[in-house]
Amino acid sequence: MVVKIGVGFLGNSYALIADGIESASDIFASLITWAGFQISLKPADDDHPYGHGKFESLAGMFSGFSLLTAAAIIGYNSILEIQAPHHAPAWFTLPVLVLVVVVKELLSRRVLSAGDAIGSTALKGDAWHHRSDAITSGAAAIGITIALIGGEGFEMADDWAALFACGGNHDQWNAYS
Length: 177
Prior knowledge:
Helix content is about 80%, strand content about 0%. The chain is mostly helical and about 180 residues long.
């Protein structure tokens, strides 16, 4: 998250900054998922005679809402950036994004496998957070590539990529329903 936001500012890439913001929401959602999962493992008690299993579902639902909120914020800021003329992103933002796509997709697959193995909705939702981060990074890489190759007049391709990635986040909501 820190690397994406830092490189995004240094490299003049709103798509990379947006990607870093989404990563921040992923970290927060992962912490909530972990806490919900831990609480759901508690045995039944006087206040919760049927156990604490619903906490896992609540954590998964929270993950979905946080993903939609991050998408809305990124979309709004992308529109503002599209309307403001600026310089194209720097070339060094591309290798960062390629590495992020690979790492986040591998992480998504590993967490999804763990979620399937134990039947955890919250872990599956967390895996989709990682996958949406990989999608956002991939869209950002495409936008930056277009901005760099296209040159003058294509500077905002980076911002359009950030906006496009928000639509990918909406699709991930289905994983929580």
